[in-house]
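Hi support team,

I've been running sequence recovery on a batch of backbones for a student project. Most finish fine, but this one hangs at about 90% for roughly twenty minutes before it completes. I'm not sure whether the input is malformed or the queue is just slow. I've pasted the structure tokens below so you can try to reproduce it. Let me know if you need the job ID as well.

Thanks,
M.K.
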């Protein structure tokens, strides 16, 4: 399988980066191919230009690359911190610019956009890893767990990704090295669950012309 891994965190020694490394390590170990994008490292521009908004065309090669890749992958894994109950601005901009109409979703003929969308993504599995300094009870009962609604209902379901799981690690600020090791094991377990070791089958082997 081919997986898109998207990281949205500006600090290269953050636990988010450690999560991304563990995700990549596990995918490699299981024989999957992947595209990895550290949005801050590649300086992804989150601001959608007006001409791009109305034309569905862009002058930025990096955005075109993301469009091409997101259409062909079998799964999407997103890693980011909880900032104000939302993804960081650079990741929100990635959603705005990459998961566009006619790329990630469309509407039935004659529907100008007010009806139910039709997901276009080939990917059917979406995983999200988050970090937070907000206690779980407050996150869920006071704020209503906004990241769950954003990713599951507002983004992935909209684009046709029907299998979804999200894991939040907290409290990051007070966490110990041992806790972080255990959390990274949970990351590997979750990736293994949805993207298990790839075993080559006879159906994967293309026939060749051989005279025996």
């Amino acid at each position: 399988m081919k997986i898109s891994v998207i990281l949205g965190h500006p600090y290269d020694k953050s636990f988010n980066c450690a999560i991304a490394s563990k995700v990549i390590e596990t995918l490699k170990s299981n024989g999957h191919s992947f595209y990895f994008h550290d949005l801050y490292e590649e300086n992804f521009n989150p601001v959608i230009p007006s001409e791009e908004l109305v034309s569905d065309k862009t002058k930025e090669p990096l955005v075109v690359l993301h469009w091409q890749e997101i259409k062909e992958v079998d799964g999407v894994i997103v890693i980011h911190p909880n900032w104000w109950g939302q993804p960081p601005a650079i990741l929100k901009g990635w959603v705005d610019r990459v998961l566009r109409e006619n790329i990630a979703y469309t509407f039935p003929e004659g529907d100008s956009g007010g009806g139910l969308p039709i997901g276009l993504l080939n990917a059917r599995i979406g995983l999200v890893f988050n970090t937070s300094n907000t206690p779980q009870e407050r996150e869920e009962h006071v704020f209503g767990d906004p990241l769950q609604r954003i990713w599951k209902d507002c983004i992935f379901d909209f684009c046709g990704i029907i299998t979804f799981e999200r894991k939040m690690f907290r409290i990051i600020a007070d966490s110990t090295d041992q806790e972080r090791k255990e959390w990274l094991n949970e990351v590997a377990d979750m990736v293994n669950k949805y993207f298990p070791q790839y075993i080559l089958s006879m159906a994967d082997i293309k026939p060749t012309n051989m005279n025996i």
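--
Follow-up from support: It reproduced on our side and the slowdown came from queue contention, not your input. The chain is about 35% helix and 15% strand. No action needed from you.
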